[in-house]
Amino acid sequence: MTTIRVHPEVLTALAERRPVVGLESAVITHGLPKIPRPDLLRSLGTPFDTKTNLPIHLALAEVMEESVRAAGAVPATTAVLHGELVVGLSEKERQDLAEHPSSTKAAPHRLSTMVATNATGGTTVGGALTLLHHGHPELKVLATGGIGGVHRGWSIRPDISADLTVLSRTPMFCVCAGAKIVLDAVATFEALETLGIPVLGSGCSFFPRFHAPGDGTLPVRNCTIGETVQIAHSQWKLSSAGILLTQDPPEKWALDLDMLEAVTRKTVESVSATGPDATPALLSALDEASTGKALQTNLALLRHNATLAASLATALLEHPQP
Ligand code: PSU
Ligand code: MN
What we know:
It contains 13 helices and eleven strands. Strands 1, 2, 3, 4, 5, 6, 7, 8, 9, 10 and 11 form an eleven-stranded mixed β-sheet that branches. Helix 7 runs parallel beside helix 8, helix 10 packs across helix 13 (293-318) and helix 11 (257-270) packs across helix 12. By secondary structure, the protein is of the alpha/beta class. The structure holds pseudouridine-5'-monophosphate (PSU) and manganese (II) ion.
């Protein structure tokens, strides 16, 4: 029988009505460089500067969990380990996942096959939402960097992330800095509307562009955490579609959108990867083209989103569905 193993610490937190934040792990296995960059981690300050002995991907995995804890919630990193669906990894499991030589990108369409073939891999947002929701229906919040969406060039080859379809049928929050810059932001925004997914802003009024704040187009409702919780209660009376809670990248690390667009356009033209390989290839080419600046911003915003997600998970428990 297929079961989802939920970490005892997560189960205890849920039973005691303490906040939990779910985390994806494709960002660890596929989204970030697996090499040490002590200079870059040091430049990001605490807590990144305490991880200079680790490769980037593992440092980020630890920082995400620690940031969730520092904000008063319990982290639940999701993954598929040797065919087992897992919500909440031990330290050893997190390390093994990061160091696995041939991990699969655990997107929704692959989960069942990964179970059948004892495969190991990092969950995408779509994969993570699936494991969290079916692992325990009280898990309501996932944090990521940027959600997957509609790829540029969709009119020639429609590549639309399953992150969107899964969020459209899963009553959970995805906390992010908008859609990854390598995507078509306008088309992604339209798709969110089509799928009935409300897009809210925390401290922003325009759909953030991942490494950069929004540009005055694509308006989102700027909500306090209290309003966000209230909207969730209404939303989940009417629909099982999730909610996208967005925030700009931290100001200190935000990039200029025009510069970013120029670099991204060139990158998209030069990268030929398709399907699940497209996002990782595009992100790493972008990091190279921006001489590591995009990577710095990516790490800073991931941590920023983990912290907001913890506040949201806390507020959801403080104001339960009336
Ligand atoms: N955000 C990042 N880096 C990433 C991803 C998100 O900052 O690597 C991952 C997420 O796991 C997301 C996935 O779900 O990329 C989307 O991939 P695709 O476009 O193949 O659906
Ligand atoms: Mn895709």
